[in-house]
Structure formats: structure tokens, C-alpha cells
Amino acid sequence: MSTVPTTATVQDTSSHSITHHATPTKVTVHPVALFSILDHYLRRTNDQDRVIGTLLGTRTDSQVHVNSSFAVLHSETKELVAVDEDYLRTMYELHHKVNQKDVIVGWYSTGSNLNTNSALLQNFYTQEIAPHQAIHISLNTGLEEGQDAGVKAFVGSPVGVSSKPENCVFVPLPVELKFNESERSGIDLLTSTLSSPSSVATQPTADLEVLEQSIQSVSDMLDRVLTYVRSVLSGEVEGNQAVGRYLMDTLGAGADDLEKSGFNASLQDTLMVSYLANLVRSQAEVSSRLALATAAS
Amino acid sequence: MAAALAASLPAPSAAPVVAAPTFAQIPSSMNHLVDVEIEIPVTSVQLDGMVISKIVKHGRGGSAGGACGLLVGLDLDGTLAVSNSFPLPNRAFDDDEKASKSTTRYQASMLRSLKEIQADDSVVGFYQAISLGAFYTQTLLETHAVHQERLRHGGIVVVHDVSPSATGKATFRAFRLSKAFMELYKKSNFTTTGLMGTSLTFSSILEELPVTIRTNPLLSSFLGVMSQSDDTTESSGSALCPNFNSLNLSTAGTTKSLERIIDSLDAYRNEENNLAYISRTIAREKVKVDAALQKRKDENATRVAQGMNPLPEDDVARMFKVPPEPSRLESLVLLGQIDAYAKGLEETAGTSLVKMYAAKASSAV
């Protein structure tokens, strides 16, 4: 242990009040940040009850977008909590190099235990990124008995006559999972591993397979709707007007724009494209073989 | 305080003798797995769920040069398990030497940091986000070749196609440079004879490795909770709602694919013209050399007949400069690109045919 990193005792921080910017009212979290937290939790040492780390993201006036996270080394006992400040700085700089927009917005911990140490850490992070307010995300891994997996977000608010760093009320904030539409397929890929027994999915999947799955799920949904409608018709269940309205809107949309001539033209185009693609491929193959053959002659 | 922290930190490279509580005996069936001497070739690649989401996220913010990063992980019994990844900074803006130095520093620093939190810290390859299936680029091959020399098992490259992921299909494919290519690369001998000797075509530059995607139990339970909660709660906010992008009938991507194919065909034609020009020059020069040589020989014959010493013949060849045979790597790569585009187009066309018929059938009902 030759290189013991310099540590900062969070308790030492002075307790002067900070002029806060507008308190965030909503937090959005990118899945990557959550996945990293889970991975970090998996890799914790035996004597660690929880792991903490830094959240990176962007903030607007009232919202905080958490885009990624990284682990931070820390140690805590009943009285003390220490974070490796050097490590935090280095990691932040590394992340900042790749993604310049992301700044520190707060910190995370696993488990839903908010104690004095959490208050100290909250104070530490709030001072790191002053004048903005740090947010805290607690991710419950759902491993402990009787606790559900879930994500909660908080901002700290000072409490008491004289504000001390260890006194803090964690005010919950609404939190939302947010990702770009184009990342959707990646998430789908991961959820598809849920259904397989060994949590494994193979790649690459063919286009047609994906299509088949989609059609299958649509068909399942139609079945569900059909059962519901039948049970309403037979009087077993009382019909929900809102649901009926949605069904009407959804199923009313027909494929009228796909009239005969349009279909045929489009079909010809697609067939042409397919033919062309095949032609190009075989030409490419022939050309590469010819390159070898001409040399032989 | 420091002691308290030291206790919680991982002891770096602690000798196994010291840290030996009772380890279970490794079963004899596993012995060949832990033998570090045996070279077990990598036969498949396993990507962790986190890596998938990291690559997808990085690819979305895709810069012009394509997002690129390093993969870290371990290999066991022929399966290369990629457990983490980190993006590399985009170095399009700096000048080369400075940028490559700072990238190296960044890499080393990142790996050290990963080690400190007990993550895997051995680089096993890199990933590259591409669009429309065109992963054959010379830079990719060169980067890979450089990695190949440095890494155990030669390293792999995972390509993630950005464009189809918008339409409901995320693709990850893993590749490794073939031996034939490496042989030629080391000698930088991409001449026609070199290619002929190894019968290298664009399809044999890279070997594809099967990819599996694995989510660890913690992640899959968490995902399970996330995708489940939308059935019970009214607000679809934090939940994952189903996605039907793959049912989209529009064929907007086709135009772009066609454009790309035409572009690379043009590029290929240019390259072929260049090659043809160079080979014509070579042929012309060779004819000149031969003529000069023949002339010298005739001269010598007459000189010998007249009883004089013959002139040396080898300096004739030196009077002419025959250009070296051109490298055909570029044209190979371009062909590979054309093929990849066309393959992508073929697949899109195929599925859109199916979708059209399906839509027609359902509208007829």
C-alpha cells in the first residue's frame, strides 16, 4: 500500500451556508448510469455495506439529467466517512475529456439507508459543485429481504436552527428513466435476455426475427384486447370508457393509404432494390476473385 | 483515518500466499482452464449488459469519425467476457502526435482507476460505432492491427451498427483479423502476388466471432422490475413500454444505403483506375528495361565477335526506375464496404417486402 491516496474527511468541511440556485424539481436518469451503479455494487469488497459514486449529467433550470456515473472509493464507520478525493478528481477529468457537456450533478449510493453519513456526503458534494445543489440518487438493489428494487432521488435541505452539515432533510424528487429513442433497441436487447434461462442472448439477430417478435407481441396484445372486449360484451366486467376510446382511436386507423396502385409501385421498387443489392454483391465477389485470377495468368 | 481507508481499499497485487484463506481446490476438470501456459483460442465473445448500453449511448452521440472506445474484460475457456468499456476521446481535432500521446495517458489513467474499484483492467479489444454496415475502413483495420500485436489473443473489435438501431434492432458483431491478413500486414505486402499467395479476399480479412449478450443476475432482476412496473402503475414514466419501431413501413433508409453504395462504387472505380494506371506504367517501364537489356546483349555479342571485353549487363536495369507494385489494400477494403452496404440493403429490402405483404393482408381483412 505504497500509494495511499489523499483523503478528505467530509466532517472537516465548514458549515457556512451556500446560496442555492433554484432547487431542481425533477430528475431524469439514463439507464447507463443505473447499470454502472449495479456493476459497481457487484464489485464491492466484502466489508462494504454500500457503494457510493458520482453522478454526471447536465442541468437545466428545474431539471437534472443524469447521463452517467462512476464509482468513488470511500470508507465509512459510525463516526467517520471518507471519500478518495483524488480519485474523484481524476475520474471526473477523464470523463470530462470524452464528454465535455457532463458535469458533476450529485452522488449515488446503493441501499435506501439515509443516515448521518449520507448527510455528510450530501454536504460534501453540494460544496463540490456550489452554487448548484447536489442531488442524491439511492438505488435499492432489492437484494435485502422485504425491499423492492427501485430508484429514488433526493435533494438535501438544511434543517435546524443552526445548519450543521450532519443535519439534513432529504427531500424526495420525482425520478424518470430517460433515454433516446434510438437507444431503445439496446434496452430491448437486454430485456430479451430476461426470458432466457441463462440470461444470455445471441447476436446478431436477423431482421426477420425481430419482425416476427414484434408481430407476435402485437398479436398477443390483440388477444388481450379481444378477451377484454368479449368480457365487457358479456357483461362480466364493466367497460371502462377511457379504454374504449383509446381502442377506438387505435384500431380505427386503417391502412387506407396503401391502395392498390401505390402498393404495386412500392413493391416493384423494393424488388428492384433487392435485385440491385444482390447484383452488386455478386459483382463485388467476382471482382475480388478476378483480382486474384488475373495475377495468376 | 488513512488506516481506516487503507483497510477498505483493495490491497494492490497482494501475494496470494498472504491472502490465502481456504480456497476450494480447483476441480481437475477445470485445470486446463487455469493453466496460463496453454493457448486457448478465443471462439466466442460475451458482452455484458452494461457494455451494450454504454456502446449504444456512445454511438448515439456519434461524431463524424464514429464513436470508438476500449473494451476490458477477461477470457476463460475460449470465451472472451467483456465486462466493461470506456470511450476514447475524439481525436479528430488535435494534431496526431499530441493527440495520440494524450490518448495513451488517458487510457493508462482510466485503466488504473478501474483497477482501484476492482473492475477488470485488461484491454481485450475495442469497439467502433459504424453506420449502415460499413465497417471496412482502413483506419479500423490499422487500429486493429496495431492492437493485435499488443494484446493477448490479438484482441477483438466489436462493431455496433448505429443506423438499424433506430428501427428496433441493435446489432453487435465481433471480429478478429485473420491470420492471412496479419501475415500480409506485417510484411505490408498487399501486392497482387501477395494476395494471391494467401488468396485473401475482402470476406477473409476479418473473421467473425459469435457474440452472446449476458446480463448479470443483479442487472436482470433490476430490468425485470423496471419492465414489470408498467403493467401495474398508470404512469408510464419510469417504465419501459413496448416498442414497435420494427413494424414501421417506411423505407426511408433505402435511399441513403443506395447513395452510399454509389459513392463507394465511385471510389472503387477511381481506385481501380489508379491501379490500372500504375500497372500500365510498370509494364511500360519493364518493356523499356527489356529493350535496353536486349540492346546491350546484342552489343556485347558484336563486341565479343570483335574480340573486345563485354560490357556489364546489370547496370542497365539501374538506369530505369520501375515503380513498386501498388498496394491493393484500399481496393479490397472498398470492395468489402460495397459488399457490406449491399448486404444491408438486401436485408432491408427483404424485410420490407414481408412487411408490405403483411400490411396488405391485414388491410384486406
UniProtKB/TrEMBL annotation, chain A:
MPN domain ranges (all copies): 27-160
Any coiled-coil regions, as ranges: none
CDD domains: MPN_eIF3f (cd08064)
UniProt keyword annotations, A-Z: Cytoplasm, Initiation factor, Protein biosynthesis
Domain of life the protein comes from: Eukaryota
An annotated GO BP: formation of cytoplasmic translation initiation complex
Keyword Protein biosynthesis: yes
GO molecular function: metallopeptidase activity; translation initiation factor activity; translation initiation factor binding
Residue numbers spanned by region Disordered: 1-22
Cellular component terms (Gene Ontology): eukaryotic 43S preinitiation complex; eukaryotic 48S preinitiation complex; eukaryotic translation initiation factor 3 complex, eIF3m
Localization terms from the record: Cytoplasm
Membrane-crossing segments per the record: none
Function noted in UniProt: Component of the eukaryotic translation initiation factor 3 (eIF-3) complex, which is involved in protein synthesis of a specialized repertoire of mRNAs and, together with other initiation factors, stimulates binding of mRNA and methionyl-tRNAi to the 40S ribosome. The eIF-3 complex specifically targets and initiates translation of a subset of mRNAs involved in cell proliferation.
Family: Belongs to the eIF-3 subunit F family.
Quaternary context: Component of the eukaryotic translation initiation factor 3 (eIF-3) complex.
Protein name: Eukaryotic translation initiation factor 3 subunit F
From TrEMBL, chain B:
CDD domains, sorted: MPN_eIF3h (cd08065)
Domain MPN stretches: 45-181
Record-level GO BP terms: formation of cytoplasmic translation initiation complex
Main location, first listed in the record: cytoplasm
Main function: Component of the eukaryotic translation initiation factor 3 (eIF-3) complex, which is involved in protein synthesis of a specialized repertoire of mRNAs and, together with other initiation factors, stimulates binding of mRNA and methionyl-tRNAi to the 40S ribosome. The eIF-3 complex specifically targets and initiates translation of a subset of mRNAs involved in cell proliferation.
Quaternary structure annotation from Swiss-Prot or TrEMBL: Component of the eukaryotic translation initiation factor 3 (eIF-3) complex.
Family: Belongs to the eIF-3 subunit H family.
Protein name listed in UniProt: Eukaryotic translation initiation factor 3 subunit H
Species this chain originates from: Pterulicium gracile
